[in-house]
Amino acid sequence: MRHTLKAAALAVAVLLSPAGARAAGEAIHLPDIRFSFDGLFGTFDRASAQRGAQVYKEVCSSCHALHLLSYRNLRDIGLSEADVVRFAAAFTVTDGPNDEGAMYERPARPSDRFRRPYPNDNAARAANNGALPPDLSVMTKARVGGAAYIHALLTGYRDPPAGMTMMEGMNYNAYFPGHQIAMPNVLNPDQVSYADHTPATVDQMARDTATFLAWAAEPEMEQRKAMGVRMILFLTILAGLTYAVKRKVWSNLKH
To answer: What does the pLDDT read at residue 26?
Structure first.
């Protein structure tokens, strides 16, 4: 309760301060960045999504859950069964009770949901100075800008401008509303080693993470787009046939 009140008071203080009020009310203009899945015919870049899954595993999973996904869902971005087993086994989950009635820890299996990093929200707040790291399962659907916002946020850490007073424990981010965020800058060059030898720049890791989270939030997107294209083609052909039949039926009518 103490941490909850502390976080709430901190947020109110930021919003009510003159600098905070101006920042909270200003429009945030995200960089113009394009992804392979943009547009009517866009599809997920599987290689980028796989790299993003690696960044999530090695960097983000220590604080952020992705609980609406199961490890076996990673097959949809091109991971083999063996890759999925290895990915899942890197995490430990609580299972049970066993024959003695006790809960126990075991390596995660492909059928398990992504492990939550904390047992409950209070534990998460206690470990993060009162801030609650959000679940990332549908984050690109929950934020204006979607994947572009995720990319901007991860690359938007700067030194605060002159004259701006930062609250204790907060970090300046050019693209976060109010510009004060509890999450520190978590991406640094060459922080991960990609299996495909793609250079692990901050921009690349942010793009890959955004792609992975976009897929996580909407894994059926490609099927939905394909169905939409088929329906447009069907309705176009139907409209043409309807017009041809109309012309045929009324062709002998004398005006």
So the answer is: 66
> Residue holding tokens 């605060």?
160
Total number of domains in the chain: 1
> Would 241 be classed as within a structural domain?
yes
Strands (E), the chain: 92-95, 104-107, 171-172, 180-181
- Average pLDDT estimate for 34-52: 95
**pLDDT one-digit tens code per residue, 157-184:** 999 999 899 998 899 999 999 999 999 9
Whether 252 maps to a domain, the answer reads: yes
In the three-class reduction of DSSP (H, G, I as helix; E, B as strand; rest coil), residue 171 is classed as: strand
Q: Are 193 and 54 in contact (CB under 8 A)?
A: no
Q: Is residue 250 part of a domain?
A: yes
Domain-embedded: residue 251: yes
What's the pTM value of the predicted model, to 2 decimals? Answer: 0.82
Determine the straight-line distance between the first and last CA of the chain, rounded to whole angstroms: 83
- Give the mean pLDDT of 114-140: 93
For 233, the domain range is 225-255
Give 71-136 as a DSSP string: GGGGGGGT--HHHHHHHHHTSEEEE---TTS--EEEE--TTSBPPPSSSSHHHHHHHTTT--PPP-
Query: How far is the C-alpha of 206 from the C-alpha of 155, rounded, in Å?
Result: 7
In terms of phi and psi (left: phi > 0; alpha: psi -120 to 50; beta: otherwise), the region of 26 is beta
